[in-house]
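Service request form, structural biology core

Requester: graduate student, group of Dr. S.
Request type: structure prediction, single chain
Budget code: on file
Notes: please return the result as structure tokens.

Sequence provided:
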Amino acid sequence: MKTSHILAAAALTLLAATGAQAETYDGVNTAVSTKSRDEVNAEAVRTAAAPNQNVTRGSRGPETVAVSKDRALVEAEAVRTAYAPDQNVTSGSRVNSKVVSTMPHPMDARVQAQQGSGAVAK
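Core staff response, request fulfilled:
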């Protein structure tokens, strides 16, 4: 019984010795900044004194949006996508199915009808 206590104490001591290892301390990391202390302080003062800094977004009215396309072009793309015949069909919609778009797009059919009626009227 004394041997088992001695072995248990030795195992516990070994476990404590391996678990007690810690990382080495390399000191405090130095701050890397492109601004001087005075520039940072001036920026903090300007930010703290800014008007309406605690107002929630959108409460000052509509926000401006950078426009990259013409409105008519975006609207035409949206209408074309909304009327696409296979917009809600994927290859996994039905078992062993494949999506093959054989239906003409309604907008294309409308344009062809307008062009066809114009040619007939001449």
